[in-house]
């Protein structure tokens, strides 16, 4: 009988914790629904290219296949506002990962297990990232990788689809270099005179991608495109 007050305390603690998680999840879902409504009101396809505001982002992961258990380790992003990269408007977070990180990933990214164990959960990081991005379109280099993981995380965490418009840097360079091959981010940077800093760090790669995007925006404008709609229409004619 002496243990009964203790058991009651534990049950109350667990109930409070569960209730807190439920409340947090409800807030997250409400935020996602509101965000999806706001995204419908922004038609970036008609925006002049030099005035586009967007969020350029990159993720580091344990592999290439989220459906097979590969995980997001970090998300980095920087904003482009009215055609200018704003380094002061940036986002970076590691994501909690409790398994042993492969040595190859440690060497490539510089991320270690101790940092990941202290990091926030994926759902928390996703919400913070979406709050940072709001209804702005997203940009990534070879975006299929980011898209797969964001789609998987959005559904797993919030049971909602990933609805942000996502532009790929290839939309621009395919127009300027239609016979070119798909190459790595650092190779594109070298080709365009962009200094390579913090490669394979999510925020570093996001900044490099933003510089690359702005470089090609100038080139596609010189090629006669005024909006992303023009870019898509010209690419369609090349196919």
Automatic annotation (TrEMBL):
<dbReference type="InterPro" id="IPR012337">
    <property type="entry name" value="RNaseH-like_sf"/>
</dbReference>
<dbReference type="InterPro" id="IPR036397">
    <property type="entry name" value="RNaseH_sf"/>
</dbReference>
<dbReference type="GO" id="GO:0005829">
    <property type="term" value="C:cytosol"/>
</dbReference>
<keyword id="KW-0269">Exonuclease</keyword>
<dbReference type="Pfam" id="PF00929">
    <property type="entry name" value="RNase_T"/>
</dbReference>
<dbReference type="GO" id="GO:0003676">
    <property type="term" value="F:nucleic acid binding"/>
</dbReference>
<keyword id="KW-0540">Nuclease</keyword>
<protein>
    <submittedName>
        <fullName>DNA polymerase III subunit epsilon</fullName>
    </submittedName>
</protein>
<feature type="domain" description="Exonuclease">
    <location>
        <begin position="53"/>
        <end position="222"/>
    </location>
</feature>
<dbReference type="GO" id="GO:0045004">
    <property type="term" value="P:DNA replication proofreading"/>
</dbReference>
<dbReference type="InterPro" id="IPR013520">
    <property type="entry name" value="Ribonucl_H"/>
</dbReference>
<keyword id="KW-0378">Hydrolase</keyword>
<dbReference type="GO" id="GO:0008408">
    <property type="term" value="F:3'-5' exonuclease activity"/>
</dbReference>
């Amino acid at each position: 009988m002496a243990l009964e007050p203790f058991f009651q305390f534990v049950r109350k603690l667990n109930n409070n914790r569960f209730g807190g998680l439920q409340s947090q999840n409800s807030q997250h879902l409400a935020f996602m629904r509101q965000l999806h409504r706001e995204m419908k009101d922004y038609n970036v396809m008609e925006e002049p290219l030099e005035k586009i505001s967007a969020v350029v982002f990159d993720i580091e992961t344990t592999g290439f296949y989220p459906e097979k258990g590969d995980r997001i380790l970090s998300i980095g992003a920087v904003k482009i506002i009215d055609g200018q990269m704003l380094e002061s408007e940036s986002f970076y977070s590691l994501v909690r990962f409790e398994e042993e990180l492969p040595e190859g990933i440690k060497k490539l990214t510089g991320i270690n297990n101790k940092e990941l164990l202290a990091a926030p959960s994926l759902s928390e990081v996703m919400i913070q990232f979406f709050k940072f991005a709001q209804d702005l379109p997203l940009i990534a280099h070879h975006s299929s990788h980011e898209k797969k993981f964001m789609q998987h995380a959005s559904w797993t965490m919030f049971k909602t689809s990933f609805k942000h418009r996502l532009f790929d840097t290839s939309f621009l360079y395919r127009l300027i270099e239609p016979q070119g091959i798909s190459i790595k981010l650092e190779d594109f940077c070298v080709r365009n005179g962009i200094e390579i800093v913090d490669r394979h760090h999510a925020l570093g790669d996001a900044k490099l991608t933003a510089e690359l995007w702005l470089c090609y925006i100038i080139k596609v404008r010189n090629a006669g495109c005024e909006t992303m709609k023009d870019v898509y229409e010209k690419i369609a004619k090349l196919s």
